[in-house]
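Quick one, T. Sequence first:
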Amino acid sequence: MKISSLLHFSFFGLSTILFKRKKPILGTIILTDKCNLTCKHCAVNNITSVIHSYKQIKTEMITLYQQGIRILFFSGGETFLWNDSNRGLRDLVIEAKSMGFLIVNVVTNGTYEINLPEADLILLSLDGGKVSHNDIRGDTFDLIIRNVREASSSNICLYVAINKINKDDIPAVCEIARREANIRAVSFNFHTPYPNTEYLSLTKDEKAQCLATIANLICKSYPIFNLKTAFPYILDDSFKTPCYQCVVMENGKQSICGRCVNIEGLCDKCGYFFAAEYALIFSGNIKVGFDMLSTYLKYI
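Structure tokens:
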């Protein structure tokens, strides 16, 4: 991370804590809900299958930048399906960088060629070892690993949603992250129970065991992009929701924190580790703040 970016984020964090501001710093733009997969845990794919226009995405980028957002995510659906007027995902990342966003990340299921060296992080969904992953996402594990090995840069971060099916696969995923040269780290979340996916949710005891496993692997220096100091709050759901420092834009509509905020009661069952981490930091939790600083400097 550049020193100028570090200073910008440090100033934002301190001013947010001191003045109790709700100004956002992280924004996600949904490029499309179209996806080539039908994963068991996903409730937001192929609802409309609309690929939003370049004009719409550019307008949303400008809107978020003018709000002071400097960390931008492109998400889907499947982001590599996005195209408009001979423009593709890579063009959006390059434009976001030229516009002044300090960190630009992309979320993908990893089933397409990964040629995106301009992105700071490519968050690639790998939901367990081969058996569990294929149970959740279809027969895609081998294809994803091949795409990872053939990727043009080492900016990949595995993105795992822990649920009933893959809860025992945490060490296996961490081994993959440590073994593969193009993978920088692995980031875990718990399954957020969108309607009709509640059966995949973990009990509190299961979550505790998962967090203990992740914490142990962090202590063993596995490349994990989560903040161990936030784990007690994640387990007890004792962080404020929604997180006002994060917003999502989809087809011109802006939501605080994430799309789940629009579903009654779902915000209280949040499984997104980053939402907890940001909420804790901007409420003044010093330990989590220092943990984030060291982690971000290591992996971004």
